[in-house]
Amino acid sequence: MLLTSLVSDRLSPATLPAYTRPVPRIILESVPPDQGIYIPKIVSKPLKKGFGFKFGIFAGIHGDEEAGILATQQLIRWASEKPEELGDFELHFFPVCNPTGRNLGTRHNQSDLDLNREFWYGSLEPEVMYLESELRRERYDGIISLHSDTDSDGCYGFVSGALLSEQLLKPALEAADAHLPRNSEHLIDGFLAKDGIIKEGYLGILSAPPEQEVKPLEIVFETPGLAPMHRQVAATVDAVKAILARYRLLQAYAPNI
């Protein structure tokens, strides 16, 4: 069984400036409690109650990929300090999806498994079971997974799910160009690619439930893992912001496309 504990930081409304939402809720999930594995979940609610595009942002599924974790921390701060910039989004941040791997400094978890090959195959790994339960329960409009690749010289990404996914990865890579080069190879990570975009992918990666009827957009954003960390973080933060901005724009023109 999964045990959920909720930690809320509260401020008096009188102390909050205009347009400031409450501090994002921090939810610590135990997976399960006797294993001592805690996956944090931070929820940033939209400014208008009951309205918002729901996105899940996942990082640290590989324990040795620190850039996505640090970028997610910056995005959480942004959601708290600049709510007017994303008032129509409900963002669910999962900054450390593989806490034992991060503690060990390894790609795999404590069971020596690559968690990003375990999804939707009946895995008994507690991290995967918890994340699958969240993906099923929340039914996200968009799923963004953050990674870094030490074999790549530039940024790139995978797209799947909704047709909009490719249209959102393009501006994300353009935004990242300000910090890091793009991987323009025709073959990246064993897959055919064009302008840093791959339309195939590995089996078993973190993704929407197979039975979800309305497919969300799904984007995996990768930075070059040997690049300076601060550049990887900046590229990732700007890429995620670009995805959200373009999604809002496209929804304004063609809702539910």
From TrEMBL:
Pfam families: AstE_AspA_cat. SUPFAM superfamilies: Zn-dependent exopeptidases. The keyword Cytoplasm does not apply. Keywords: Hydrolase, Metal-binding, Zinc. It comes from Brevifollis gellanilyticus. Its cofactor is Zn(2+). This is Succinylglutamate desuccinylase/Aspartoacylase catalytic domain-containing protein. The keyword Metal-binding applies. InterPro entries: AstE_AspA_cat. GO terms for molecular function: hydrolase activity, acting on ester bonds; metal ion binding. Residues 57-168 form the Succinylglutamate desuccinylase/Aspartoacylase catalytic domain. Transmembrane segments: none annotated.
